[in-house]
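Run log // design_07
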């Protein structure tokens, strides 16, 4: 009777003569450490590890991957959200990486200021539209959040913010 081979045995047989190029090895290593960085940041945000532990992990990772701080910066930028409390992430830029958070805070302030102006403009337009239809009074309050075009606008602004973060020099 023939032997039944496991999937891993079949894969190992088919790939035994394959080798990774140096570029593929570097890419695999970068992917591995990027995943670790994301995991550590998420654990920190979930308060499952503290900043001291995160610093220890960073120090150990830098011994393995010299450009790990750059990986960590990119990952931290990915965790920033325009409509969220980013204080813990921003503090990591300064405390963990020694990078000023001022450019990021300035960018966020600019985007949030633009969004607030647009919200006010849209609410005023809705108030005028309602007044034009004879609906007015102190109890009438325009709510931009209920407007589908407002939701689309916010999503576009969040995408623009994410793109702008990738371009920022830290």
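design_07 sequence
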């Amino acid at each position: 009777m023939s032997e039944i081979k496991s999937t891993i045995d079949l894969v190992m047989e088919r790939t035994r003569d394959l080798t990774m190029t140096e570029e593929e090895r570097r890419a695999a290593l970068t992917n591995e450490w990027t995943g670790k960085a994301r995991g550590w940041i998420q654990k920190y945000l979930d308060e499952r590890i503290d900043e001291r532990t995160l610093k220890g992990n960073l120090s150990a990772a830098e011994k393995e991957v010299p450009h790990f701080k750059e990986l960590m910066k990119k990952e931290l930028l990915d965790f920033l959200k325009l409509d969220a409390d980013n204080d813990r992430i921003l503090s990591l830029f300064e405390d963990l990486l020694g990078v000023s958070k001022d450019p990021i805070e300035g960018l966020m302030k600019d985007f949030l200021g633009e969004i607030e102006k647009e919200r006010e403009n849209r609410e005023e337009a809705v108030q005028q539209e309602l007044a034009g239809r004879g609906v007015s009074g102190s109890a009438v309050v325009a709510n931009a959040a209920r407007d589908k075009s407002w939701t689309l606008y916010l999503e576009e602004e969040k995408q623009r913010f994410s793109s702008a973060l990738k371009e920022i020099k830290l």
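Helices lie at 7-15, 22-45, 51-64, 68-79, 87-95, 102-132, 148-167.
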